[in-house]
Amino acid sequence: MHVQDMQSETNTHDPSLLHPLFSNPDGDVILGSKDGEVLFRTHTFVLKTTSGWFRTLFSLPQKCSPVVPDVIYMEEGAAILESLLSMACGLPIIPPTSYDAVDPLLFAAEKYDMQGPLSIIRMLVMTPPLLSQPLRLYAVACRFGWEAEAQYASTQTLSLDLHSELHRASLQSLSTPALLNLLQLHRDRREALRTRLDDPPFVGGGTAVCVACGWQIDYHTWRELKYKIILEMDVRPLGDTVVNTGLLEWPEAKACWSATCPNPDCDRVLYDKGETLRVIKECVEGLRKCI
């Protein structure tokens, strides 16, 4: 990496370009934004304490310090430098509101080995409105090994259809292990529910005889409802649309709850709606929720 090829300008600089928060004349180093429009005067001690990269830089042999320090032009723009230096110096910051602002901050903090700013950003990504983008949070958390944040984000992705084209770019940014772990979580929830729907008290979905009159019964309405449930879990593994609305409002559900024995003299209701809803809800609530 380079800091504008590590070229410093002459000792002269325009004082009007100094950022108001970083203009103390006691500062012995000046950092310049990549466009040269904003200067940040600070202390080598602060940079060496908060940045492994600067600690290495300033351990190199230095020429005698001039009365006015040279300007070191960085690769980052003014906004990124302001945020990083404010975090490093304990100054107030404006929290980022999108990952378009978070990602370059993380890149710069990682590049300059600034663990303090990294820890601050780690806390910021767990606040609104950044929490509304679980795939971006998951990508960041996996990249930096933030286990708790990655688990939380993986849970929030359960409301998303990972097969949708809308999420393709976000998924492509994930490492292979992170992507596979997320896909496995979504698939495991669907398959666990599929397996449970084949176990008692649910019927297998084939044919049987009515326990009341002995007429043959075809459980096709249950087969169709079960298929609908699995399809819904594939696009929204959270399962809330299944238990909260689907089992009450889907045409397949209504057909299931109204199904009766085909013997007109029997007319026994085939399925216990209340018990079926209870067991499915209990199953969904018990599914694995995070990677």
Shape: rod-shaped
Q: How confident overall, as mean pLDDT?
A: 90
Tell me the CATH topology of the largest domain. Potassium Channel Kv1.1, Chain A
Q: What is the H-and-E element order?
A: EEHHEHHHHHHHEEHHHH
Low-confidence stretches: 1-10
Portion in helices:
40-55%
CATH class of the largest domain equals Alpha Beta
Distance from N terminus to C terminus (CA atoms, Å) equals 35 Å
Largest sheet: 3 strands, mixed
Strand order of the largest sheet: 2-1-3
Instruction: Give the percentage of residues in beta strands.
Output: 5-15%
Radius of gyration, Cα only, in angstroms? 30 Å
Secondary-structure-derived class:
mainly alpha
User: What's the CATH H-level superfamily name of the largest domain?
Assistant: Potassium Channel Kv1.1, Chain A
Secondary-structure arrangement, i.e. CATH architecture of the largest domain: 2-Layer Sandwich
Protein name: BTB domain-containing protein
Describe this structure as you would to a colleague:
Helix content is 48%, strand content 6%. By secondary structure, the protein is mainly alpha-helical. It has 2 domains: 4-125, Potassium Channel Kv1.1, Chain A (2-Layer Sandwich), CATH 3.30.710; 192-285, no CATH class. Helix 10 runs antiparallel to helix 11. The longest helix is centred in the middle third of the chain and has 21 residues, at 176-196. Residues 1-10 have low confidence and may be disordered.
